[in-house]
Amino acid sequence: MTELQKRHSECTEECHSHEPMTHDDVKDYYGKRVKKTSDLKTNACIAPAKPIPAFIRNALAEVHPEVTSRYYGCGLVAPECLEGCRLLDLGCGSGRDCYMLSRLVGEKGHITGIDMTEEQLEVARKHIDYHTQKFGFSKPNVEFVQGYIEALTEAGLEANSYDVIISNCVVNLSPDKTSVLREAFRVLKDGGELYFSDVYSSSRLPEEIRSHKVLWGECFGGALWWEDLMRLAEEVGFSTPRLVTANTITVGNKELESLLSGYKFVSATYRLFKIPKNPEKKDCLVIYNGNITGFEKSLEFDCHYTFKEKEVVKVDGEVASILKNSRFEEEFTFQPDVETPLPGSCCVSPKVVLVNPFELAEKFESANVSPATGGCCGTQASCCK
Ligand SMILES: C[S@@+](CC[C@H](N)C(=O)[O-])C[C@H]1O[C@@H](n2cnc3c(N)ncnc32)[C@H](O)[C@@H]1O
Questions:
Q1: Is it the case that residue 142 has pLDDT exceeding 90?
Q2: Which residues have a Cβ under 8 Å from the Cβ of 382 and sit 6 or more positions away?
Q3: Quick one: signal sequence residues (predicted)?
């Protein structure tokens, strides 16, 4: 018997299962066992690593307290440039992020929340009118659908119909992550984005951890090894995931911690785009026009690139392709000729492209810098050294 198995056998009978986790186990967890944020047994549900801009804080403050009391997310899923967009929230739960985003997309935008757990959706649906009135909209721009994130088609969601998909601490709970990414890719429009926060592990997790009901329910047992996300994204056809931010998660529960020893976990936010596969990805100079609401002075695109208004920045071919083929196209001026940069142009692109969320989280910690300050890549200049 391995040490882990010994410790596992000391756990209470109800944690034990030698069967793979099912949708029903997770429904039971979020529908029956956990009723509010403080019922969670670990720290997986941590404060977002990124600073929250004031206009997003204001939108969050307007969400109904009953909705907020059942928030179980692990990051801030509020990408930029959302006005008028059609959004989908995978595993929306009681709808906190849907309502925050309802405010941000505005009356002309729309957001669909999908979740499989009736009890969560009940709370979400109960407050549609409250938020419609609060935001001063003439009709709701939010709907909640019951269904599985691995089967968006069956839930009635159309192909090529969403500009942005977000998800907050949900994909780790799915027993079939390939289907989740495939379905997300299918329902996104061309140029669309999957922007999601989730829990990742430092290596692949063994069956003893994966089959522990509480660890799975608390978002650890089903956590993807971050390198597997890179492989899955490529397999499905997404652009290489761009790392936005990462934050170390401590378990905060002695018994569960001992089961997980030897493994580390982070909460990380990645952005993946549905853009044409372009073998010829060339570096490019770009200038941000400063027109995105809430990000007029600067736009922190990921942990490498922060675009300041009117500043010339050299981006790698992948980012150039993302910006040109997505909703960001109108927000930038592109100058493909990198050989004759304009006066004041930025230094070269970062030499090492950091995609490992553990490295990013460690950098923030060792510099004793909260990611809230922008961390190691808070400015383009600091990234480009
Ligand atoms: C950790 S909670 C997060 C909820 C919400 N995103 C939030 O931030 O409060 C996970 C949610 O995902 C839902 N969920 C998990 N797996 C799912 C699946 N395969 N299909 C649909 N919903 C799922 C659960 O019902 C639960 O409401």
A1: yes
A2: 376
A3: none
Query: What confidence tens digit (pLDDT) does each residue in 245-288 have?
Result: 999 998 888 888 999 999 999 999 999 999 998 767 788 999 99
**Ligand 1 atom having least distance to the Cα of 150:** 19
Q: Please tell me the distance from the alpha carbon of residue 322 to that of residue 262, in angstroms, as a whole number.
A: 37
User: Mutate which of 22, 23, 29, 30 to test ligand 1's pocket (most atoms within 8 Å of Cβ)?
Assistant: 30
Cα 92 to averaged position of ligand 1 atoms, centre (Å)? 6
- Max intra-chain CA distance, the chain: 68
Question: Looking at residue 340, what is its pLDDT?
Answer: 61
Nearest in space to 64 (alpha carbons), one of 171, 142, 147? 142
**Residues contacting residue 28 through CB under 8 Å, at least 6 positions apart:** none
Q: What percent of the chain has pLDDT over 90?
A: 70
Residue 170 CB less than 6 A away from ligand 1: yes
Nearest to 86 by CA among 159, 173, 172, 181: 159
Q: How do the residues of the chain divide into helix, strand and coil, expressed in percent and rounded to 5?
A: 35, 20, 45
Nearest CA owner, ligand 1 atom 14: 91
Q: Give 159-223 as a DSSP string.
A: TT-EEEEEEES-GGG-S-HHHHHHHHHHHEEEEEEEEEEEEEESSPPPHHHHT-HHHHHTTSTTP
Backbone angles phi, psi at 183, to 5 degrees: -65, -40
**Cβ partners under 8 Å of residue 294, min gap 6:** 53, 54, 55, 56, 80
**Structural domains in the chain plus CATH codes:** 3-273 (3.40.50.150), 284-383 (3.40.5)
144 lines ligand 1 (CB under 6 A): no
Stretch 211-220: mean pLDDT, rounded?
91
138: how many CB neighbours lie within 10 A of its CB?
Answer: 7
More confident residue, 376 or 323: 323
What would the pLDDT profile of 181-205 be if each residue is shown by its tens digit? 999 999 999 999 999 999 999 999 9
- Closest residue to atom 2 of ligand 1, CA basis: 72
- The yes-or-no verdict on residue 124 having pLDDT over 90 is yes
| Verdict on whether the full-model pTM lies above 0.70 | yes
The position carrying tokens 């998800």 is: 167
